[in-house]
Amino acid sequence: MRAPSASLGEGAARGERTSSETDKRRQILEGARTVFLASGFDGASMGEIARAAGVSKGTLYVYFDSKERLFEALTIAERQGLAEALFHLDADDPDVAGVLTRLGHSYLTELARPDHVAVIRMVIGATEKFPRFGQAFYEAGPVQGVTRLTTYLTRQVGAGRLVAADPELAALHFLHLCQAGLLTRLLFAVGEAVTAEDITHRVDEAVRVFLAGYGPEDR
Questions:
Q1: I want to staple 87 with a disulfide (CB 3.0 to 4.6 A). Which of 7, 148, 173, 217 is the partner?
Q2: pTM for this structure?
Q3: What is the DSSP string of 78-145?
């Protein structure tokens, strides 16, 4: 009867180690984010990242054996979290205009955040030297978001609420209608800060134009 107790104890210990390792990895990524945003990929050093994360250099290398792997892990984590937060769509929600309006607001609000724009600049700056960084960033974020929106739109086409021969292209159309050059302006730091009124106007127009093009013909 004592063996199960020992097994349970070992399981709990493994769980604690896993939780501790996850927390430590998150701590390292947060430190890396601070340093990479401040110095860029080329300007950052593993020593600086270790100090910013509050860990030893030896511990840092246990989790990430190179600056390249750490940067790639950070970019993937940034985009995965964003896609999960913004594109949490209920495929069975029949209120297409409402779903797209809410998505458009959250999408543009996040897009316009200065630290989000800084992350995109950071990745672009490193991608020429390491193309896989750009690919990882793109696949973890934009691809996931478009895939989730495509799933929603496909369901609405099947229900007769939309008409779209290519739901994936329709998803891209909607997202680009929302930002309509905004990201380019932000990347080059041109113009005034984006306001809530600007976001509302952009999203309302994007939904209007999208439904004019993809709404059912007999609406």
A1: 148
A2: 0.77
A3: HHHHHHHHH----TT---HHHHHHHHHHHHHHHHT-HHHHHHHHHHHHHHTT-HHHHHHHHHHTHHHH
